[in-house]
Structures are given as structure tokens and as C-alpha cells.
Amino acid sequence: MHKAGLLGHCAPAWKSVRMASSGMTRRDPLTNKVALVTASTDRIGFAVARRLAQDGAHVVVSSRKQQNVDQAVATLQGEGLIVTGTECHVGKAEDWEWLVATAVKLHGVIDILSISITNSNLDINMKAPALMTKAVVPEMEKRGGGSVVIVSSIAAFSPSPGFSPYNLSKTALDFPSACSSGWTRKKRKA
């Protein structure tokens, strides 16, 4: 059966999501991996951090407010997960540079970068993912590779009246994703 539209392209991913959430016995595929997750104290970012930690990763959560970081860390550690965290405003270069340096200092490497930005600020949505990826990729290369996940929204493909800045900011996330994907692929082949 042919699946049309966006979901048709995601069918292989849906299968793995179903398998992972079905309670099937699986080993921790991310054991000894370090994941850095931005905007990870609630909503999608928190769910990503939780799932990565459940799969065995050492997760570094971050948010603009330290009290939110402390609460998320306590919740996840209360579930027996390996999590640390620190305050970071991804719109401030000095914050994310410090976040990357702190994660590397604590864990030695970064294997996974998940960027989840939940506001409509064009400057943050356009610059932060590209600059954070640029800062993290050299650390990943030291370990032989890694993964960068930039969380967007259906708003990038389905604009809503009255939400133009938000829609535009989410559409803007696709470009740095595509560019950095091509850049890292070329570096691996060289």
C-alpha cells in the first residue's frame, strides 16, 4: 500500500517508534553515549531527554532558567536516569559555548545534539542551531561521529494566520539542518 504525503516518507521511522514504545525487550542502544539537549525541561525537549536517557545515554539538559533545569534533573534522576543539567540561553553565544564546554568537561565527548527551540525569535531559530552544530561537530568527530537532531514543527509546512513569525522561524530550521548535513557528509567522505 502506498502512503502519500509526509507520513509516507516517515514510515520506516514510525516502525522503530512503535517497536520502541511497544515494550519489546531491547538493550540500551545509547549506552556510553552523551546527549546534549537544549530547551529540555518541558514539552518536546523534556520528552527527548527522557527517551535518550531511557535508552542509556548520559543526558545533559538545559534551559534558560536554572530552577527549571534543577526540576527536570530531579525528575529524571528520580526515575533512575543518568542526567545532569545547566542553565543555557541558546540565543546567547557565550551560553551555548559554555554549555558545550561544560558537557565536554563533565563527560569527555558529545555524541548527540538535540536542538529544541520553542520560541518564534528568528535570530535564535536561525543562528543558534547552525552555530551550536558548528561548535559540537568537532567534538563528535573526535569520537568518530555523532548525531544532530534539530526539532522543528509542522508549522514549517502548514502556516497558520496570525503565526507568521513562528511559521517562518520553524521553516528557517530546515535550512541549517540541510546545510550541516551536507557539510558533515562531505567531511566524512574526504
Automatic annotation (TrEMBL):
Pfam families: adh_short. It comes from the Eukaryota. Gene3D superfamilies: NAD(P)-binding Rossmann-like Domain (3.40.50.720). Transmembrane segments: none annotated. Belongs to the short-chain dehydrogenases/reductases (SDR) family. This is Dehydrogenase/reductase SDR family member 4. GO terms for biological process: retinal metabolic process. GO terms for molecular function: carbonyl reductase (NADPH) activity.
